[in-house]
What we know:
Blueprint: H1 3-13, H2 15-39, H3 46-54, H4 64-71, H5 79-95, E1 104-106, H6 113-124, H7 126-138, H8 144-147, H9 161-164, E2 170-175, E3 193-199, E4 216-220, H10 227-231, E5 236-240, E6 247-250, H11 258-261, E7 262-266, H12 281-299, H13 307-310, H14 317-328
Parallel strand pairs: 1-2, 2-3, 3-5, 4-5
Antiparallel strand pairs: 4-6, 6-7
Amino acid sequence: MPSDERSERALEALAEDRDRFHTAVATAVDQVHTFLSSHRSPENGRSERVAAELGRFAATRVDPDRFAAVFMDSEALDAETLARVETAAEVLEALGKDDPTHFTATVPEGGDLRDTVVDALARSGRAFGAARVIDLARTGRYDGETHAPFLESFPSRMWNRAEREIAPPLVVEVDGADLRVGGLAEFLEGMQKIVLLVRGEAPPAALVRLVTPGIFVMQTPDAAALDRLGAFRGPGIAAVVPESAARFMHDPAGGPTPASRLQIDSVPGEPPKKPLGRLTIFQQTQELEQLRALTAAAQEPVAEEGEAAARPSPAMPGDKLAAWLLRQANLD
């Protein structure tokens, strides 16, 4: 499947997560517009509305500007604060558009996968940064030196729990030689989903490093299988890999035990024969051996309740020595 088709298929699989992010941003945009319309200066119509509501009797007796300032719930904001809020609103509006580039990134040949993910999430995370700027500006806590950069970049390490629950998904194209995934574990929280579209030859079992009880992890050569990731309610990562790589899926919804969560469809029989980019033979072999160990563990029968207690434990050297001494002393 060509790269463009794989990317489209991945974005389609992540449609629910994209919609969740877009809906939150669109709601924020509506709230900001309402806020701005009710906090602009009297010249923008508030005084006229107050005068009309007070009627003719108050026309020569009550100053509508002063009345509005005292009795209206919303106060006019100064021009500087309004400008900050409007700039942040523009960032929200831009990120609220249905633009696939908000959810895609490409690792340059020989580049760092983690750095690319950091930059991409910081770019889409500007929606959260803009919301922070608006709140800080309207409450008088805004500091330009500290908070202005939030509109340019807002990294995921600064997202709060609620923001992680509407995390923008990410589809990343990366060469197999640059598929170093260990640094991606820190991003897999809340509802964060990441899809890696691997180009060319790839290490056999790179994603096994990320298998933990609560994380959805999948390696597959079939982009259509990404629907499983999209359906999972939690953090997850998947890689679309060449046919030569291992095929497996770790689904936390499968059950409480590793055997119930792990499905392994294919494990390469031959060990890696050469380095791949900066991935050494040792690193590739360790990942493959870890997957084989998980395969063996998943195939072991689960002991029934009480069976483990009844099963004799293997004799230790000390036990053997004690038994020999007892026999020599005829104290059995």
